Every structure is written in C-alpha cells, then in structure tokens.
Amino acid sequence: MLALGLSIQFELFFIYLIPVFILLWLILKPKFPGPKNLFYALITLLLVLSSMIATEIKFHFAGISSLVSAGSLVGGSQNFDFLKLFSLNILPQYKNLDMVLGIIAVGLLALKPNKRNLFILVWFFSPALMLVLGAHNAPWFMIGRPAAAIIMGSYLISKLKPNFLIVPVVGLIIYANCLAIKADYGQGQTFLEPDKSAILSKQIAVMDYTYAKSQGKDFAIETVTNPLYINAVWAWNYDWYFPKYGYKPTWLGGDQLPPYNTLKKATGKEKYLFLIIDETPRIPPVYTQNATKNLKKYGKLLEEKSFDGLTVMTFQTQKF
Length: 320
Description:
This protein is an alpha/beta fold and 320 residues long. The chain has 3 domains: 1-68, no CATH class; 75-193, no CATH class; 197-317. The protein is 50% helix and 10% strand. α3 crosses α4 (50-58).
C-alpha cells in the first residue's frame, strides 16, 4: 500500500493502479489478509495520500474529474498499438510481425492460465484501462510494457523445438536489434527529456532580456508555462535574480497564493508588458492564443523573440 500511495502521489494518472490491483487480486486469488493487516494497510495508504485527498476535497475533486476528459485537455489523442512492441523488441525490421507474434504469445499464455501467465497478461494489458479515458500525451504510464513483451517473447522462444534452434533464433534477434539501433540512433526522442524551457541558462536569458528591453522602467509579466496559471517558476526566478537590477516586475496574470505571490499585481503604470511562452508541445496552442489576445487589449506588440524553448512577446502599454 505504501508503494501504491507513493505512485499516485508522484503521478495522479497512476490512480489506474487501484483497479489493476483489484483485478490482480480477483484473478490470482491470494490469501486474504487478516483484519489487523488490512487495517494497517489501509491506514498506510490513507496517510500517504492524505495531502492529495485534502487537496482534492478543497478543490471539489478537480484532479480526479480532469482524468475523465484527459484526452481533450492535454494535447489531443494518440494511438497506441499494444502488439507493436513484439516486433520492436524481437525483429524490428519486420513490422508486420507484431500482430502475429502478439497473438501467438498472448494465445499461448492464455491457454495455460496459471498465476504466472495471468500475472504477465495483466501486466501487459493493464494500461489499456487508461486508454478508455482517451490518450493524454503522457505515454510514460506504459513504461513497464516492453519488459512484459520481452518476457512473453522469451516464453515463445523457450517453446522452440528442437532446442538447438534457440541459439540461432536468439542470435538473429540480437543482430536485428543491433541493425535497428544503428539505423535509428540519434533520431528518437530521449524518454522523459526535460523541456528546453526548463534549462536555467535560458530562463536567465529571458529575464535579462525583459530587464534590458524595459530600459529600467517598470514592467509586468504574464506567462504560459508549466504549471499553467501558477506562477511558480517565474515568481521564484525573479525573486532571487532581481537584486542584479534592483527591482522586480509586477504580475499581470491571475491571483497567486503563497508561496507564488512574490510578484505584486500589475498596477497599470507599467510601460512594458512581457508574455513568456513555453514552446513545449505539451501546452495546447489555445492557452497561448488566449494569453496573447488578452495582452493585446492592454498594449501594442513590439517584438517576439525566441530563446530556443521559450518565446517572449514584448508589448508597449497603451491602456489598462
């Protein structure tokens, strides 16, 4: 229960592990714990999740509700081919083998429904529960599936007869994977690669730019960066960096609660307004469009400059 609670705390999407846990319990039918152990397990889970539960109650379960519309809220849908992993991990050059290998592997495991086989099948297919809600540009929740696919592929190889065929087959698989690595090396995306906007040197360059562009005059900022609507990054950055210039900008966005309220609200006397935009594809364009439209009500766009991960739009105030 401790591991389950920590997983959900780290990433809300992992709440899907609860029905997976229940499904495994129903399929594998382990010995039911005694009342004392069950009580301690539930108390541990509740304690670990206590802060998250309190937050959900305070905000009327907004986080849980957002899961229902995850596909429409964060960047649209994606298609995930569950059986494609077999060809990717066994013979990458032969893409059409994925369906055949997948069906054979799943079929052989299902024909012998012992606890080992059932566990691997649940492991492999459990992320499908999240796809019921729609894909959400968070494919890392499927990170464990390749290991399950490799185990299932290994099971297929172990059934080869006569046994001497296993060595050349494994050799062929290793050779095919080496060719695929050589062909695709450097072309893929680093898994969980941090956004370019998260690099401190680029954030400092943005702050230097806003101070230089404002020429010592008061200015306000608005941001379309992660986390959306919460000025965590830039409130912190300007709070520790402002001594270099002697003053802080004001904040043009929505009201901020402590500790994110280190920038005062814009007064309308600022000469320049800056919109700082994260270029990550994980933020849908509609948020940038709305913020730009809002700032155009108050000022005239002078310049738009990219910092390779962050874009800054400079406005000169005309009215507030």
